[in-house]
Structures are given as C-alpha cells and as structure tokens.
Write a structure and sequence with these properties.
The protein has 205 residues and is α+β, with helices and mostly antiparallel strands. It is built from three helices and 13 strands; from the N terminus they run βαββββαββββββαββ. It has one domain: Alpha-ketoglutarate-dependent dioxygenase AlkB-like (Jelly Rolls, Sandwich), CATH 2.60.120.590. Bound molecules: 2-oxoglutaric acid and fe (ii) ion. 2-oxoglutaric acid binds next to β6, β12 and β13. One of its GO terms (biological process) is DNA alkylation repair.
C-alpha cells in the first residue's frame, strides 16, 4: 500500500470514534460525472429551500429537490416536503451506489450550490422520519468542496475534500455523535450538486 492510499480506501474510517465515515473517492469516470452533472443541473426541478428560523419562513440561495420511491412526506428544517418520483438518471445512480455499498435507499435529497458563497451550516441528519443510525450515501458532482465533521461533545474536527463523481458514506452512530457542514469558500466560483441517498422509515401520509 502506498503512503496515501487510505484516502481512497472505502474501508478506512475517517472518524476517530463514535461513528463511521467512508470515502470511496471517484466512483464515476470523468465522462459519466460530467454527464450526470449536466443532466441533473438541467432536468431537476430545483427550488429554493424553505427553512423556518426563529419562527420565520426563509428561502435559502441554495436550491434543493427531493425524490423517492413514493410520495413520502419528509420534515426537514421544520418544513415538510413531498418526494417526486425517481428520474431514469437518479435510478441509475441509486443502483450504482447500492451495488457499491451493499445498502438500500428509498429517497434522495438533492442540493445545488451555485458557487462557493453557498454552503450548509453544521447539522446532523437525524430527523424522526429517517431510519435511526441508517446509512446516508453522499454523491458529489461539479466543484470540489471541503466537507467538515465536528464531534458534538469533544469538538474534534475532521475535514475532507469531496471530488467530482465521488462517494462518501456516513453510517452507524455518526448522526448521533457528529455534526457535518459544507463551509462556504471564496475560492469556488462554479456549481456543485450533492445527492444524499437516505432511508425513510415512517411516512406522515
Ligand atoms: O452538500 C453536501 O455535501 C452535504 C449536504 C447535507 O449535509 C445534507 O443535505 O444533509
Ligand atoms: Fe447533512
């Protein structure tokens, strides 16, 4: 094994404790990643995200979409969304990721960050509709951005860079014990699309 091979070793756990984060590196060729990036940029019905902060409804600059097996209602940032059906491209990506990871997913939250000024603040994905300690698979398309984890009690930080066409997995106790964020950066002037494949357990419908 070369010195830095662990960076793309999907068995290497990036977290020192209390959870598991595996980085698979690029799971798509440059051509495939470019194709999916352009397809999703154009075809997804991107909408500004609604969040309720201090009781006020706000719209984020970042855009989102939510797709899934059936018209799930999913409450996220205190606002409820209904999943749209899978597109052909989303299903291809879901199948590829399920094959790679041996996990099953029934929904996907998509985020579009137009440039480095847009990011996502520290949070964990542990809403009540999500399977407890279920695996979340995160696919990056477009600009390479830093992604950070922070331990909820010790404050330890882990940073990694998510490449175009790459896959990151968060599993086990990660959402219980760690926060994650996508920090804004002045260095990036091009869009990034992120897909997080998830397992929803309860539906409010
Ligand atoms: O854009 C990312 O890499 C992460 C997005 C995220 O954390 C989320 O959608 O919950
Ligand atoms: Fe998240």
């Amino acid at each position: 094994m070369e010195l830095f091979d662990f960076i793309h070793d999907p068995h290497f756990n990036w977290l020192p404790k209390d959870g598991t984060v595996n980085y698979y590196g690029k799971i798509l060729t440059k051509e495939e990643a470019d194709y999916f990036y352009l397809n999703l940029l154009e075809k997804i019905d991107w909408k500004n995200d609604e969040a309720i902060i201090f009781g006020k409804k706000i719209l984020t600059k970042r855009k989102v979409a939510w797709h899934g097996d059936k018209d799930f209602n999913y409450t996220y940032s205190k606002s409820t969304k209904t999943a749209l059906p899978w597109s052909e491209e989303l299903l291809l990506l879901k199948n590829k990721i399920e094959e790679k990871t041996g996990e099953k997913f029934n929904s996907c939250l998509l985020n579009l960050y137009h440039d480095g000024s847009e990011g996502m603040a520290y949070h964990s994905d542990a809403e009540k509709d999500l399977k407890k300690n279920g695996t979340i698979a995160s696919l990056t398309l477009g600009a390479e951005r830093k992604f950070s984890f922070k331990h909820k009690t010790s404050g330890e930080r882990i940073d990694l860079f998510l490449e175009h066409g790459s896959l990151l997995i968060m599993k086990d106790e990660t959402q219980t014990n760690w926060l994650h964020r996508l920090p804004p950066t002045k260095k990036i002037r091009t869009p990034r699309i992120n897909l997080t494949f998830r397992m929803i357990e309860k539906t409010s419908t």
